[in-house]
């Protein structure tokens, strides 16, 4: 390969305001016009973005000690339970947590009007959060009850830590059943009345670095309107998923675990969501800069919606009961056109991930880099890719009564 | 005296009738048209303020209903809160009249309240809950 650029070289150019940056959408035309080699020779960074519902998200909080001190046991933030099974005033609030009095699907389909994601949005908006907590009391932590409120600026730490974000590709959900169903992929009308997808496609971070050749542990990213980092591979990370000739997966594959300081984020990019009949969650805005180290990385970044395929999956029986496989493979170009064809049936499509948001994130990250506000980091360790041979497990369902005989 | 803001919905065959003329002449009401969308052979919508004697107003409402017009309070209108909309597009396959539409290549959602039939399906299909009614809006404040 003729181009061999280092992260250090790119950062030198960022420092002097000379870095050439395109978004993953813009770069498609550039590569078409100039060819991969010339584009690789001139472009330093390609920025990506995605803004979709990401359930595996949440925030670690240290709320500080009252006087006398307390070892928090049962904790509610605006009525939503937070996990306290760590140190005394440390908490984890998950995006899908629900108030115990939420009727959930007892009133089917449930509204799920306020959950953990909404509390996080309120926190980052600077609103006052009510905290009601109880404890069993100890010699060192005597307080047994507290009912107070705090704002984000008044607590010690609020660290967004999302165990699984940025899915590399996702299912297209349809309903083959005879009734409307309510899923985490939205409302699905009977007899394939609609097909919902959830990926930014050509702008999506992991579609632009399919084999994780640049993204690794410590990669600095756009997260929730601020700066964050890749900490690990995400849960359910499955780089071994089947891939097309361009190395992009044709089913959900790699994932990322992300971290960042909530105090420098914006409510615009961390939005509480209510999925009818499913639950509460959070829409997370994130974007990854991809350093154009050589022609190979440039080629990966030039991928367009026509070349990216997603599996169509039935959410009536197929997904919930693991029955049957995918119904078809469709391209993101087709999905974004407004309809797809399955078995001769024209099905209207809709996205759950905001492409307009993804565009804005990639453009913002581009601006940060061009103006020298954001430099790139080299990963301190790679994420597991093809060579790891990862296989996803299903939960063993044993009879607890039948003890294994040694 | 009463003063009411209402929305009148005309079925296509009534669009060409002089309804407003009758409201003024027969019921002595003051009519202040706020918005109108009347097309030949299509359903029409008229947002207006009516004021006059209580009795006349009640009789006018009865008469309008007899004519086959649908009358809705302004609070039954659907509001699209663009500040809450994340432009995902999930609502656009649920909306039966394409009042909520997805614009390409901008990839943004838009709401045409004249096409809206207030079925309210979008209220709960929107994960970001960007669709509201005036009543709901007032309650949440």
Could you walk me through the main structural features you see in this protein, from its secondary elements to its overall organization?
The complex is a heterodimer of chains A (406) and B (141). By secondary structure, chain A is of the alpha+beta class. Chain A folds into 2 domains: 7-54 and 161-385, no CATH class; 60-159, no CATH class. Chain A is built from 6 helices and 26 strands. In chain A, strands 3, 4, 7, 10, 16, 17, 18, 19 and 20 form a 9-stranded antiparallel β-sheet that branches. In chain A, strand 16 and strand 17 form a beta hairpin. In chain A, helix 2 (26-42) packs antiparallel against helix 4 (295-301). By secondary structure, chain B is an alpha+beta fold. In chain B, the strands form 3 sheets. A 4-stranded antiparallel β-sheet of chain B has the order 2-3-1-4, covered by helices on one side. Chain B has a two-stranded antiparallel ribbon with strand order 5-8. A two-stranded antiparallel sheet of chain B has the order 6-7. In chain B, strand 2 and strand 3 form a beta hairpin. Chain B is elongated, with a radius of gyration of 17 Å. Classes of the chains: A alpha+beta (406), B alpha+beta (141). Chains A and B meet through strand 3, strand 19, strand 25 and helix 6 of A and loops of B.
Features:
heterodimer, A: 406 residues, alpha+beta, 2 domains, nine-stranded antiparallel beta sheet, four-stranded antiparallel beta sheet, 26 strands, 30% strand, B: 141 residues, Alpha-Beta Plaits, disordered C terminus
